[in-house]
Amino acid sequence: MYKNFEELSPIAIDCLQEIGNIGSGNAASSLSAMLSKPVTMHVPKINVLDYQGIIDKVGGPEKIMTAILVTFKGDIKGMMMFLLENAFAQIVVNTFMGKDHIDVIKMDETDSSAVKEMGNIMAGAYLSALGAMAEFTIEMDPPSMTVDMMGALMSAPMATLDEVGEKVLFIDEGFKIDFVNIESNIILIPEMESLDTLMKKLGVN
Amino acid sequence: MNITIGIGDLKVCKSPDVLVTYALGSCVGVCLLDATVGVGGLSHVMLPESNPSSAAATPMRFADTALPMLISQMERMGASRSHLTAKIAGGATMFAAASDKFNIGERNLEAVRRFLQSNRIPILAEDVGLDYGRTQFFYPETGIMEIRAAAKGNKQF
User: Fold this and answer.
1) pTM for the whole thing?
2) What is the DSSP letter of A76?
3) Which residues in A lie closer than 8 A to residue B23 (C-beta atoms)?
């Protein structure tokens, strides 16, 4: 059985990369349908990184990001965090509420629930791609959203450090809504047993 | 000079140097001071308790192993245990709908308080709990702890 994500072979990483491609594609089409706007994805890149590396890559500990945290169970168990640049919240609130400029850290309840809903749909699209590819049933728990400093957001996935080790799967992606570039990242932490099940199912050893 | 303490790390300094740790979420920043000699220390506690293997590999992450290290480093710089006072911040719950695992903020706070109490180190101020991230500055020169939060601005303790 895998002890940590560093043990994944290049082929296994390629496999996860492919799941990432399909997941991102799904998420983009869901988003495009909801916003009625063209959405194009950049090709996602998957890495195995430690938390300090993730924080540095995203823009430092005090960078404000929108994070959607989902835990999931079923055939595979684990946690996923969807990180979005503030431009995402701006576009969603502009589209649904007609507001031009908002302070993302001080969003009101209505604005924040619109952003959360879009984030949930994207996270769901991503996980269902994973489920479909491996023919797994994955059940999402109710997601929660927080807008805050990157370092503080990381403390939730970091609580799994004892179980899965220092490094986690980090997917660097990005998309374009109506010609606006939005950086986004996914931190994927399946439990080690689930990672095993997934890799076996995909025929990777 | 500003001395930065990373996640699960600890550092000590002499006045007028300043200790800073960025974006505490469920982690707890523990500032200790011996005001008589101007020696301060800051520990960025990630998790409440170590196990034997993690205690050996990464003792600075855990309340039960990091805080004794912080005190002995301060003693080496001339501080005495009996003069120490504490100010703490962090221990937030960053996500609302979360399983037990994420109650880590409260468990960190409990572990820190338990340690300080059993070592008779009084907590002079705290800015803890709730649901937001905090950057913590500690000035051993004045004993002031300053907290910067994204939506709330700066506050001094």
Assistant:
1) 0.92
2) S
3) 61-62, 149-152
Residue of B nearest to A68 (CA): B95
CATH fold for the domain made of A5-200:
Chemotaxis protein chec (3.40.1550)
Give the whole-angstrom CA distance, residue A78 versus residue A81.
Answer: 10
Domain residue limits, chain A: 5-200
Q: Which residues of B touch A160 (CB under 8 A)?
A: 101
8 Å CB contact between B22 and A62: yes
DSSP states along B29-94:
EEEEEETTTTEEEEEEE-BS---HHHHHH-GGGBHHHHHHHHHHHHHHTT--GGG-EEEEEE----
CA-based nearest distance B98→chain A, Å: 8
Q: List the structure tokens of B30.
A: 């523990």
Q: What is the pLDDT along chain B (157 residues), one digit of tens a residue?
A: 999 999 999 999 999 999 999 999 999 999 999 999 999 999 999 999 998 888 888 899 999 999 999 999 999 999 999 999 999 999 999 998 655 566 899 999 999 999 999 999 999 999 999 999 999 999 999 999 999 999 888 999 9
**CB atoms closer than 10 angstroms to residue B76:** 10
| Cβ-based interface (< 8 Å): residues of A facing B | 51-52, 60-62, 64, 67, 69, 71, 105-106, 141-144, 146-156, 158-162
Residue range B2-156 in CATH 3.20.20.370: no
Active site includes B31?
no
Residue of B nearest to A103 (CA): B151
Contact check, Cβ <8 Å, B150/A69: no
Instruction: Kindly provide the ipTM of the predicted complex, given to two decimals.
Output: 0.92
Structure token pair of residue A90: 């701006």
**C-alpha–C-alpha distance, residues B111 and B45, integer Å:** 10
